[in-house]
Specification:
13% helix; eight-stranded antiparallel beta barrel; mainly beta; 10 strands; Lipocalin
Length: 151
């Protein structure tokens, strides 16, 4: 009986030591970590063009077209091809951290043109995907851009 009491006391002592050694997890974070702002600054070239769900990249020479997004929220276009805008101007994202739309305003224009915006990483490279209709509503273009080394 005495031996059983010693075993029970020893078990109780071990349990108390185990509980005293445990640390209670305290979450000191203030919530969800902040997503960084999307940086689209630089010169972008066309990697792929889809028109009405058909890849037309090989049907036309898109290699010279460039759009440069500057830090001061201006953009410039070089070697124009059918696109949402024709002239240089200013740009803005609807939300710098979680953008869904890119707005472009041509210099001298009062109207802003908005396009669907996606910013995926594919194969370790950052891309921009813009979907728009350049006038004719029956044609929907989805242009995928990759940043160039011309920055």
């Amino acid at each position: 009986m005495k031996k059983t009491l010693h075993i029970k006391l020893l078990s109780l002592f071990c349990l108390m030591c185990l509980l005293a050694a445990c640390d209670i997890f305290e979450n000191n974070s203030t919530g969800i970590p902040n997503e960084s702002e999307k940086n689209i600054e630089g010169a972008w070239k066309i990697a792929k063009v889809i028109r009405n769900e058909v890849d037309i990249t090989a049907l036309m020479d898109f290699s010279q077209f460039r759009i440069r997004f500057n830090a001061d929220h201006t953009y410039t276009i070089a070697h124009y091809l059918p696109f949402i805008v024709k002239e240089n101007g200013t740009w803005s994202l609807d939300d710098p951290q979680y953008p869904f739309h890119l707005s472009l305003t041509e210099d001298g224009s009062a109207g802003m043109l908005t396009t669907a915006f996606n910013y995926p990483v594919i194969g370790g490279k950052r891309f921009i995907t813009l979907s728009f209709t350049p006038g004719c509503q029956s044609h929907i273009y989805t242009n995928t851009f990759v940043i160039t080394s011309e920055n």
